Amino acid sequence: MSAVHPVSGNCHAASAGAYDVVVVGAGFAGMYMLHRLRGQGGSVRVYEQGGDVGGTWYWNRYPGARCDVESMQYSYSFSEELQQEWNWSERYAPQPEILKYANHVADRFDLRSDIQLNTRVDRAVFDEATRLWSVTTSDGKNVTAKYVVLATGCLSNARMPDIKGLPDFKGKVYHTGRWPHEPVDFTGLRVGVIGTGSSGIQSVPIIAEQASQLTVFQRTPNFSIPARNALLTAEEREAYRAKYPEIRRFAREEARNGIYTEMPDRGALDDGDNVRRSKYQARWERGGLTFMSVYNNLGVDKAANDTAADFVRDKIAEIVRDPETAKRLQPNNHPIGSKRICIDTDYFATFNRPNVALVDIRTNPIEEITANAVRTKAGDYEVDALVLATGFDAMTGSVAKIDIRGRDGQTLNQKWAEGPKTYLGLMSAGFPNLFIITGPGSPSVLSNMIVSIEQHVDWITGCIVYMRAHGLDTMEAKPNAEDKWVAHVNEVAQTTLYPQANSWYMGANIPGKPQIFMPYIGGVGVYRQICNDVASKGYEGFAMTAAEPAQQCAAS
Ligand code: NAP
């Protein structure tokens, strides 16, 4: 006999292989989604392709990997006990510590029993007749769910570069986003690193300490600010904790990027040269992402932006002794901040080491990889090991790997062929009851991800509870609401300098990917208010259908 589930109202919830909610991914988003839904009593199954929880922090184990948002802020806020009790050891926690935290959360909130590891979701098909999703997993099983939540992460689909000859290379090849779990020792080896984004910039100084020779192949130089990482003292942690109510409130409601910091009240050109320089200097010394918050117009006014970019270029010239190398390391083809700004420890100084060389592959392109070398137009660079720090198919890549079919058999990949289309980054029209956490069209990667994750999970939970309370069966974005939102996301992006860079925000790093600015740049606080307003107006812009009588539970 079937029973009406207290949350979903579904009859199928009681039978094996039938869940109220299937969550794809057990990173920070998937784990919190499970925790929140558990609180409502629903049946939830989480599938995770990795061998453990932690998402991006499970995979990205490259040397030097650490978060670029301070750990006291890059942490869950939903549990007061958790945030008071967990002791972050450093200002920016290293990857192993963040992974330990993820594991602690899984254990502390008893999440593991509903998480199936080493299992990919390959397919999700919406059945119009039953209004359920049929979900196929990599272990060959099929389950049904009323709701599917994609907690697949924005930077989880590591991108192997299309470089001729790569499979013929005889040494070891590592991708930063799929680093082995066993220790990698480069001692005495000649190593080549391809890519100088955040992952390359974090790993280069550490690899340089081990390798006999390190050659860095750079296509685009990046702006990077010193992390000024340090151990946290007990007093610093206590001071933070005492201020948590205000820090968390500010991050959620006021900050554009979900990070607690001072809000600038003037533009860069409102100050004279000396004052401006001293302000940049103070932030440079403080270190970290908030360098871009010195002034309120660095993201929108090119002349203002140039002042910050010049400051960083001057710093590179000061740090790097060889003037030619310094020049090659100075970014000149995009405004500062229009590509994700990098945070480093001794990156530029590493090029002063005698065992480190920089190759500019923009002017001297890689032609192929041979058995033992990177062959450029100007000649061969012999290497024993290769590190590919070449990034991700960001924001849509992991979703695209799942065969998702909504109404009328339309696939999500067909629908998104010219760029992702969502309403609020949360749902896509034609795909009922399919939610995306930090999807394209939401602040996501432009924010402290955990702040955005918690907001989306809370909103989705509220939505599911609302549907149950109102006897509703399906919910989906209305096409006109979605079109307006997509237009709004583009419009806001166009008021900024972001579209001026060939960044992964634009899909520009993937050949053939439509070039659309994917995240919503209106700010975390503004976005939260929009989502709350939509909910308070009975989920304006979403179509909801009532459960048909046949869907009501009958004794069987
Ligand atoms: P990324 O920023 O996309 O950088 C990839 C690098 O590889 C770029 O320098 C790119 O050059 C180069 N590249 C790509 N394909 C290439 C090819 N075929 N030949 C030569 N060079 C190639 O990737 P990422 O460094 O992994 O970082 C991605 C994002 O992950 C970051 O922006 C950040 O949001 C996040 N992340 C965060 C942290 C942290 O919290 N500290 C650490 C790592 C990553 P072009 O620029 O010319 O395309």
Distance between the termini: 5 Å
Top CATH class of the largest domain: Alpha Beta
Second-tier CATH architecture of the largest domain = 3-Layer(bba) Sandwich
Tally of alpha and pi helices: 16
Number of domains: 2
The overall pLDDT average reads: 94
- Weakly predicted, low-confidence segments: 1-14, 551-556
Q: Report the helical percentage.
A: 25-40%
* Bound small-molecule species: NADP nicotinamide-adenine-dinucleotide phosphate
Strand fraction: 15-25%
Query: What form results from the Cα inertia axes?
Result: globular
Protein name: Cyclohexanone monooxygenase
Cofactor: FAD
GO molecular function: monooxygenase activity
Pfam family, one: Pyr_redox_2
Question: Could you describe the 3D structure shown?
Answer:
The structure is a single chain. The chain is of the alpha/beta class and 556 residues long. It folds into two domains: 11-157 and 394-490 and 518-551, FAD/NAD(P)-binding domain; 160-222 and 341-391, FAD/NAD(P)-binding domain (3-Layer(bba) Sandwich), CATH 3.50.50.60. Helices cover 31% and strands 17% of the residues. The chain has 16 helices and 20 strands. It has helices at residues 28-40, 56-59, 80-85, 95-108, 198-210, 234-242, 244-253, 273-286, 302-319, 323-329, 347-350, 397-400, 412-415, 449-469, 479-494, 524-536; strands at residues 18-24, 44-47, 115-116, 121-127, 132-137, 142-150, 172-175, 190-194, 213-218, 224-226, 342-344, 356-360, 366-369, 373-376, 379-382, 385-388, 403-405, 434-436, 472-477, 542-546. The strands form five sheets. Strands 1, 2, 3, 4, 5, 6, 17 and 18 form an eight-stranded mixed beta sheet that branches. A five-stranded parallel beta sheet has the order 7-16-8-9-12, with helices on one face. Strand 5 (132-137) and strand 6 form a beta hairpin. The longest helix is centred in the C-terminal third of the chain and has 21 residues, at 449-469. The radius of gyration is 24 Å and the shape is globular. The model is unreliable at 1-14 and 551-556 (pLDDT under 50). NADP nicotinamide-adenine-dinucleotide phosphate is lined by residues 66-68, 155, 161, 163, 176, 194-200, 202, 219-220, 340, 343, 361, 389-392, 445, 504, 509. Residues 19-227 form the FAD/NAD(P)-binding domain. It comes from Bradyrhizobium erythrophlei. InterPro entries: FAD-binding_Monooxygenases, FAD/NAD-bd_sf, FAD/NAD-binding_dom. Belongs to the FAD-binding monooxygenase family. Keywords: FAD, Flavoprotein, Monooxygenase, NADP, Oxidoreductase.
